[in-house]
Design a protein that fits this description.
The protein has about 550 residues and is of the alpha/beta class. The chain contains 16 helices and 24 strands. About 35% of the residues lie in helices and about 20% in strands. It has an eight-stranded parallel β-barrel with strand order 1-2-7-10-11-14-15-16. It has a six-stranded antiparallel sheet with strand order 17-18-19-24-21-22.
């Protein structure tokens, strides 16, 4: 009997030890993730990868369009395919931001650049439905599940400011929902929010607290699709819970937050923030937070980490130098407190051109560690609607990667930055030239493109592996024979060298590493040991990425 008890006890002990060991391994393998240090990949859903050619044409969108102003076939399945292939993981991407996937206007509009369809996603017809050109709800569920399985978060794009343009197929929404004029002059606060962004883009009356009925075109559409009763039932429940008036903005908030509770998305990039009253975004944050908590309660096994729902705002022309206050000329507005975790930073492209890397890094560290402590900025050098990108001719793809990944803050990689996708397309007018299809052929067959991508992958992975790179404290170590600096966040410590001499290198690491420590240069993939407060080794590269192993 004693032997049996002993054997049972031994088995129990070994089982506990095995569980403890497994738990330790799991903890060791789990990398910290904070949005302040993330690598976000921004893509136009229609222009990235065509995973399902069967959904390329819908709603008879077959008229000839202006150059790059029609649907090109990219879809949700195409993004999922590239996640499965490991494309994003190899690039160090831990979040993907997709342009809006909600159902777009069925018709097209011509404002002097040739006929345009809503391929970009910002011309909403129905917030409750996914446009079939982009895919289905099942496609989105699979995308989020596969992304999360690979440690990648998903951001959708939220538009509350406006509907899509009016066309023969897309009637104007009722006048208690939208204004159709005047057009914004942008010379003060009122003339930026109580107006239409451009001609024929009806502006939602986001300031209104008046109860409004559903637009007749939505009622007709939902009845034809057999889901009118269900949509009304859900709206009734939403307004009963929140006690909000049935005002236009709250309908849209309900529809947008459904994507959180139904699919488990991790955040929203919010469009045209400064064109809507700031209290709208505070209300939106509350509804997003509530929905995210509901999702986590109902899907505990699918939660990636304990981060809150992420909101990053597009306040056009916001600069990190503004700190928390954006100036309209006659009014300053703080979009951070009680609303956004981060704002898109329109300044870095100028900083990267006009300042040294040393000065850029120091400037951003100072602001993020002080005025913006607890918040972040999303740095970009190329985007879908900025006609003055950092490197429009794609002559500086290596510097672009260096400044984007190594400047303190969150990085936004615009699709094709990493492969020098051309930004000047013959025949394309305006922002269409920034929106060509992803250059997969170059990635497969062009040696120079492969070399560029390899550089981006090394820097991207290093930043993804170390939240200290984007969200840690920056300290200058040396600027003799190149720029050497450290980034430290809690126990995560790295040293980075730029513009170093090729061949023999000697780097002072005493500020954060100890004698006898074994370090890995992630860039050249070789191990070195700290002696006399320094590491000495040889590599053909001018970049060094040192981490403790």
């Amino acid at each position: 009997m004693k032997n049996i008890i002993f054997i049972i006890s031994l088995i129990s002990l070994l089982s506990c030890q095995e569980k403890t060991a497994t738990k330790k391994i799991a903890i060791m393998e789990t990398k910290e993730f904070v949005w302040e240090g993330a690598n976000i990949y921004f893509l136009l859903t229609d222009r990235f990868n065509n995973g399902d050619a069967n959904n390329d044409i819908n709603f008879d969108r077959t008229k000839e369009t202006g150059k790059l102003r029609g649907f090109e076939g990219g879809d949700i399945k195409g993004i999922t395919q590239k996640i499965k292939e490991g494309y994003f993981t190899k690039l160090g991407i831990n979040a993907i931001w997709m342009t809006p996937i909600v159902e777009q206007i069925h018709g097209g509009t011509d404002e002097g650049t040739g006929l345009s369809y809503g391929f970009h996603g910002y011309w909403t017809k129905d917030w409750t439905n996914i446009d079939p050109n982009f895919g289905t709800k099942q496609d989105l569920k699979e995308l989020v599940a596969i992304a999360h399985k690979n440690g990648i978060r998903i951001l959708l794009d939220a538009v509350i400011n406006h509907t899509g343009p009016v066309t023969e197929k897309d009637p104007v929404w009722p006048n208690d929902w939208v204004r159709t004029g005047p057009q914004c002059s942008y010379n003060n606060y009122k003339h930026t929010i109580s107006c239409t962004l451009v001609k024929n883009l009806p502006d939602i009356l986001t300031e209104s607290n008046e109860n409004v009925a559903l637009p007749p075109q939505l009622i007709e559409k939902w009845k034809a699709e057999g889901r009118y009763e269900q949509e009304v039932k859900e709206l009734d429940a939403f307004f009963a819970r929140t006690k909000h008036p049935r005002a236009p903005r709250f309908y849209i908030m309900k529809w947008l937050t459904d994507y959180i509770t139904e699919f488990g998305i991790d955040g929203y990039r919010v469009d045209t923030v400064k064109h809507t009253e700031e209290f709208v975004w505070q209300e939106f944050k509350q509804e997003c937070d509530f929905s995210f908590e509901q999702y986590k309660k109902n899907n505990a096994d699918k939660v990636l980490d304990d981060n809150n729902f992420y909101l990053v705002g597009e306040v056009y022309n916001y600069a990190i130098s503004h700190g928390k206050a954006f100036d309209f000329g006659n009014k300053k507005v703080n979009y951070f407190d009680k609303a956004f975790n981060s704002l898109i930073n329109f300044e870095i492209k100028w900083n990267a051109k006009q300042m040294s890397a040393k000065d850029v890094f120091q400037k951003y560290d100072t602001i993020l560690q002080n005025d913006l402590k607890g918040y972040g900025v999303l740095n970009y050098l190329t985007s879908h609607d900025d006609g003055q990108p950092f490197d429009k001719e794609r002559k500086l793809p290596y510097k672009t990667a260096t400044m984007l990944f190594l400047t303190p803050g969150t990085s936004q990689v615009y699709y094709g930055d990493e492969s020098a996708r051309p930004l000047i397309i013959e025949g394309a007018v305006g922002d269409a030239t920034l929106r060509s299809f992803m250059n997969w052929d170059d990635i497969q067959n062009n040696i120079e493109t492969k070399n560029i991508l390899n550089y981006w992958q090394k820097l991207g992975q290093f930043k993804a592996n170390h939240m200290a790179v984007g969200a840690g404290k920056h300290e200058l170590i040396s600027e003799v024979n190149g720029l050497v600096f450290s980034r430290v966040r809690n126990n995560d410590k790295v040293i980075i060298g730029l513009d170093l001499p090729k061949g023999n290198k000697e780097i002072n690491v005493a500020s954060i590493f100890n004698n006898g420590d074994t370090l890995n240069d992630f860039f050249s993939n070789q191990k070195v040991v700290v002696k006399g407060g320094k590491v000495s080794f040889t590599s053909k590269d001018t970049v060094v990425l040192l981490e403790k192993k």
